[in-house]
Amino acid sequence: MTQQNNSSLVVEGSYDYIICGGGMAGLSLAYYLKTSTLAHQSILIIEPQEKDKNDRTWAFWESHINTFENILFKKWSSVRFGDAAGNTQVLDIGNYQYKLLRGIDFYNFVIGELNKLGNIQWVKDSVNSINEDSNFATVITQNGARFQSNYVFDSTYKLKLTNKNNHNLLQHFKGYVIQTDKPTFNPDLPDMMNFGIEQHNECRFMYVLPFDEYTTIIEYTLFTERLLEKKEYDIELKKYISEKLQLENYQILEEEFGIIPMSDEATNEFPSKHVIRIGTAGGYTNPATGYTFQNTQKRLKRIVESLEKTGSPLIKDTWFKKRFLFYSSVLLNVLEKKRIPAADVFARLYERNSPSQIFKFLDGETNFWEEIKIMYSTEKPKFIAAVFDVIKRKMLH
Ligand SMILES: Cc1cc2nc3c(=O)[nH]c(=O)nc-3n(C[C@H](O)[C@H](O)[C@H](O)COP(=O)(O)OP(=O)(O)OC[C@H]3O[C@@H](n4cnc5c(N)ncnc54)[C@H](O)[C@@H]3O)c2cc1C
User: Would the pLDDT of 6 be above 90?
Assistant: First the structure.
């Protein structure tokens, strides 16, 4: 990354756009801006890290070619689901594909392209505050530099996760990339969710996404309110590798640990006239699944299209579209209150519906009649109890 080290320098400047945080959302936005009709406009990206490590791997489903298709690490046309009793089924995912993109490939590609496209300033610093008056927003960094812009895109804002009327689960996971000395994995069949492990009356599953016959990423994932002790993730991963995958000889090539908020805390993508929150900060995470990558791309493309057409980044969802947030709250309520074992919730959804319909639903792209069908397939009394609880917690407070 060609970055300016700001440790002893105080720079002041005005830009058409300032992006706070050059991670997945910030870099994606810069890329969409620079490949749009707004390419001539100036961009400043403020990011303290080098982005030279494979700090995360994004998995997501999609039914079309995406902007980063050429740098995908792997994609699959079918996936497997495993229930708590140890039964597995290959899901027919229709014209969807399950895709894997490594963080380092994304950072290298996007930063390389942005440097080629030019008119972009990088500052290696942390944002301390973003202030606003009627004309513009001012970003002040840890090193005391001040930058101004009509539009500041902020991916650094942190959700609070403290309001008890919200559902505040955490998706936390630890993963290894492992390599074996003999052909072991089926590279065409990833395990998207396998609940065939000790549940401890919680939502716990493994996913195994093989790169080839010798190498796979394997992740131990939980949707719960509290994190585990660090060593517990390793114990479960090693147990699964030895007991379920029956492997004794393997090498751990990489490790990954992550926490994604699964919360229905109200997010504010457009908190004020000159500030736009993007990525996790803007509420782009699906609260019920933790998936964020795909929605971020969709949302940012819409924002850039709006800037191109109207000069304003403001995009609006209809009131009716917001029903998907309500569905997420209901699913979170079922999981948080343990109304039904989590493994059964997902098993029943995938058994009684076409898996591609479930993907479409989780992407917020189904129509109301398709949603009724999905609702009808759930354990209705428990879900109805969750609906009432959500109304009580979120609407009557
Ligand atoms: C390990 C991991 C694995 C994940 N896997 C998936 C997945 O498989 N599929 C999926 O859809 N989602 C996944 N997610 C969720 C989500 O897609 C990622 O967290 C994604 O990176 C979110 O993008 P973002 O831009 O909002 O945040 P980030 O990518 O984290 O970017 C935020 C950037 O802001 C910078 N920053 C922070 N504070 C400041 C500050 N004060 N000033 C300036 N810069 C600052 C950070 O250094 C960072 O670069 C995963 C998350 C993690 C942590």
Answer: no
Joined tokens for residue 46: 């403020």
pTM over 0.90: yes
Which residue CA neighbors atom 35 of ligand 1 most closely?
21
Does ligand 1 come within 6 angstroms of the Cβ of 258? yes
Token reading at 145: 């530099």
Residues 106-117 as b/e (b if ≥16 CB within 10 A, e otherwise) read bbbbbbeebeee
Bridge partners of residue 60, in order along the sequence: 99
- Rounded Cα distance, 2 and 24, in Å: 17
Distance CA 19, CA 42 (A): 11
Q: Are 196 and 84 in contact (CB under 8 A)?
A: yes
Rounded CA-CA distance 324/66 in Å is 23
What's the rounded Cα separation, in Å, for the pair 317 and 310?
Answer: 17
Ligand 1 atom at minimum distance from 284 CA: 26
DSSP-derived secondary structure letter, 228? P
Dist. CA 314–CA 299, nearest whole Å: 11
Residues pairing with 13 in the sheet: 147
Sign of CA dihedral 318, 58, 220, 90: positive
Parallel, antiparallel, or unpaired: how do β-strands 137-141 and 146-154 relate? antiparallel
β-pair partners for 217: 177, 209
251 Cα: distance to centroid of ligand 1 (angstroms)? 27
For residue range 245-278, list pLDDT tens digits in order. 999 999 999 999 999 999 999 999 999 999 999 9
Is the pLDDT higher at 395 or at 211?
Answer: 211
Q: Is residue 20 lining ligand 1, measured as CB closer than 6 Å?
A: yes
* pLDDT digits 0-9 by tens, 42-97: 999 999 999 999 999 999 999 999 999 999 999 999 999 999 999 999 999 999 99
Residue located nearest, by CA, to atom 43 of ligand 1: 126
Q: What mean pLDDT do residues 121-129 have? A: 97
- From the CB of 103, is ligand 1 less than 6 Å away? no
Pair of tokens at residue 393: 């917690």
Q: What is the CA radius of gyration of the chain?
A: 22
Nearest alpha carbon, ligand 1 atom 21: 24
Instruction: Say yes or no: CB of residue 177 within 6 Å of ligand 1.
Output: no
